[in-house]
Amino acid sequence: MATLSSVVLLAALLAAAQYVLRLLHSFLWVPLCLERRLRRQGIRWPPRSLLSGNAADYRALLAAARSKPLASFRHDGVVARATPQYSVWPARYGRPFVYWFGPRPRLVISDPEIVKAAMTDSTGVFDKAGAGGNNPLARQLIGEGLVGLTGETWARHRRVVAPAFNMERVKVRMRFLNLT
């Protein structure tokens, strides 16, 4: 009887140790390896908490942005209010930059060639499913369009909108708006 309880206790201890090791791997080892890779590439980010990432800084930026009235409905004003990290952190940390949701980094890119590669990629290398993050204001801003879609849904939507961006149609619109 004593051996059975010791075997059960040992199994429970092993399961608990495995759980703790998995947590350490997810919350410590993987983020540290990612940080090392990103630093080697010259990418910077705001200081982060081990468990919550940049959540406290993000909440402070959002509260500061919401505390002021919206001066105009221009794109840059709306973006600065809905997603202040995209206007404040690039000025502090450069482009591209990273911010963290707990142990998961979000790489923010703005170079047109990299954005084009990410948006037209159908291989799944770029994870766009989290576009806009967990921020409902950001989701309202960018919507549920191509930015956040992946796989077959992305391909179907891309086929639907592609004719609108035909160069001849764009030229006609530019002439109509006197932008040429």
UniProtKB/TrEMBL annotation:
One of its GO terms (molecular function) is monooxygenase activity. Keywords: Heme, Iron, Membrane, Metal-binding, Monooxygenase, Oxidoreductase, Transmembrane, Transmembrane helix. InterPro entries: Cyt_P450, Cyt_P450_sf, Cytochrome_P450_Monooxygen. GO terms for cellular component: membrane. Its main location: membrane. It is found in: Membrane. SUPFAM superfamilies: Cytochrome P450. The keyword Transcription regulation does not apply. GO terms for biological process: lipid metabolic process. Belongs to the cytochrome P450 family. This is Uncharacterized protein.
